[in-house]
Amino acid sequence: MNYNQLINHRNARNSYSILSNIITTEIREGYAKCELNITENHFNVINVVAGGALFTLMDSAGGATANSYGARVTTLSSSVEFLNAIKEPKKVYGIGRTLKRGKNIIVVDTLVEDDQGKCYAQGTFTYFNLKAPFHPTEENNNE
Fold first, then answer.
1. CA pair distance 38, 115, nearest whole angstrom
2. CB–CB of 56/22 below 8 Å?
């Protein structure tokens, strides 16, 4: 698996991540890191970053982690805990690490943290292996 090709593909063709301002910065087997530059557009009505923005960042990092094994995947389920509110624009990182890789299922531990290592959210995401090789150069690949 060419991880640089996979990173470039995700950043150029993953429409929802592009819309959400999420960039994949690192992928290696069983690990991925994405970043989100939080702007005023990510804040909700109570003036903190919307949980959905952090959820999307964690799902992106988890999906990239699952993709690191060379297969296309889809999210089956997730469980997320929001631990600290983000009250100002900043850069945060979504990090995914494989907890379990089975024949059909990949379970990934995810978190959102800032440059100082403060954790804002933690989650577990479960992905189903679609049994289709991930070829970043193909036109019709999604995640």
1. 13
2. yes
Q: Residue 67: which of 19, 16, 17, 10 has the closest Cα?
A: 10
Taking the C-alpha atoms of residue 24 and residue 1, their distance in angstroms, rounded to an integer, is 16
Instruction: Give the domain range for residue 104.
Output: 3-133
* Count of the separate structural domains present in the chain: 1
Please state, in angstroms and as integers, the Cα–Cα distance from residue 32 to each residue in 38, 41, 85, 139, following that order: 19, 25, 23, 23
Model confidence over 52-99: pLDDT tens digits? 999 999 999 999 999 999 989 999 999 999 999 999 999 999 999 999
Distance CA 62, CA 58 (A): 6
Q: Is residue 59 within 8 Å of 5, Cβ to Cβ?
A: no
